[in-house]
Amino acid sequence: MVRFIHAADIHLDSPLKGLARYEGAPVEQLRNATRNAFSALVTRAIEEQVDFVVIAGDLYDGDWRDYNTGLFFCREMGRLHEAGIPVYVLYGNHDAQSEITRQLRLPGNVHEFPGKAPGSFVLEHAGVALHGQSFRTAAVHENLAVGYPAAIPGFFNIGVLHTALDGHAAHDPYAPCSLDELAARGYDYWALGHVHEHAIRRTAPWVVYPGNLQGRHIRETGERGAVLVSVDGSRVKVERLAVDVLRWHHLEIDGAGAVCLEDVLEAIHRGLAGILPRNEGRAAAVRVTVRGSCRAHGELFGLENQLRAEVLAQANALAGADLWVEKVCVETSPALSPEELMARSDALADLQDLLAHVGGDAELIEGLTEELQELIGKCPREVLERVPALEAVRTGRVRELVDSVAPSLLARLACERVAERGPASRGD
């Protein structure tokens, strides 16, 4: 039996985005997350006593700031060298020959696929042949797979390729090719990289994306790692290896039944508590989004900062530094429709009527735009960056802003009127 680990998209020393700018964020965990995940991968390779490791591109995240990134990689490769485990590295768009200007001599167990043309490594003792071509430049738009050598008869042939295949919306279309073109090479297993989501695209032959080793932002949620491949004659088994040290989650809360802020906070607390058992001891970074048409909308409107502070307090109480809230988003809508508000015979209905006609009053919009632009001209840049509504004012889209804010403003005022009338009126 032959066993190997297939990894890709490690992005060593890539900064995790979306947390470090917040006070109290686990900065040290974030800074070292990609390194710690890679060390965990090396540890698993040694524990599993694999025959070799394949890295299918984007080992690095671009040119090194200094030699520490390369020194760390050499140190981890030294651990595998002591265990007698060779490593076969193919470079992708982030670590192409044109991108990495610094170089270090690598340990003798590390073998690099060439960039000028496809190259092969034949492991006679294991009956395995690996074929691949590294990126010479960051953007490779030609089909590299069609130039790969023919499969070696009697060997388990592995094609190593950094590609988005025939297109992937989230990734640049580098080294494009089709599943049929890969199958036509006659290989047994294609070790792919570039797409950060784990996927088995085909099983005859095997075409596998292991996904990236460590999620780096909120668009990379859930389990991350590599795959362990076992080959026993004609039988191939592919298992996931989770080695991520910090896991991203998007907690979506249905606020449809929420009457007040307390109801929303209770729902969020239940959601956060439910994440911890699934995280298997890892740190968690969570984005919370509250959605739905609800009576609590008016109370939530404009209180994102307060809501985030409340949710942070919940997270700290549940798991301390191991549970961090990246952002809290409020995407609720009023429980009362504009028609229902118009039916009310009070000042709130009058305001609804006024707001409904603001968009058609060009003179009013122009005056409002001038006044608001003068006001935001005095705001610090960091404030403008954090409040999207101010960008709408700066670019003159005040009519659009009024249309989007009006329902929430009315819901907020309606909520305050209910509060003034007392608890007995909440069922009105």
Structural domain tally: 3
Helix/sheet category: alpha/beta
Name the helix and strand elements from N-terminus to C-terminus, one letter apiece: EHHEHEEEEEHEEEEEEHEHHEHHHHHH
Oligomeric organization of the protein chains = single chain
Mean pLDDT, as a whole number? 82
How many strand segments?
15
- Tell me the CATH superfamily of the largest domain: Metallo-dependent phosphatases
Quick description:
This protein is an alpha/beta fold.
Detailed description of the structure:
With 428 residues, the protein is α/β, with parallel strands linked by helices. The chain has helices at residues 27-31, 33-48, 68-82, 179-184, 261-278, 297-300, 304-319, 338-342, 347-358, 362-376, 381-386, 388-394, 398-421; strands at 2-7, 52-56, 87-90, 110-112, 119-123, 128-132, 156-162, 189-193, 199-203, 206-209, 225-232, 235-242, 246-254, 283-294, 323-334. The chain has 3 domains: 2-244, Metallo-dependent phosphatases (Purple Acid Phosphatase, chain A, domain 2, 4-Layer Sandwich); 246-335, no CATH class; 337-428, no CATH class. The strands form 3 sheets. Strands 4-3-2-1-11-12 form a 6-stranded mixed sheet. A 6-stranded mixed sheet has the order 5-6-7-8-10-9, with no helix packed on it. Strand 7 (156-162), helix 4 (179-184) and strand 8 form a beta-alpha-beta unit. Helix 5 runs parallel beside helix 7 (304-319) and helix 9 packs antiparallel against helix 13. The longest helix is centred in the C-terminal third of the chain and has 24 residues, at 398-421. The protein is elongated. The termini are far apart.
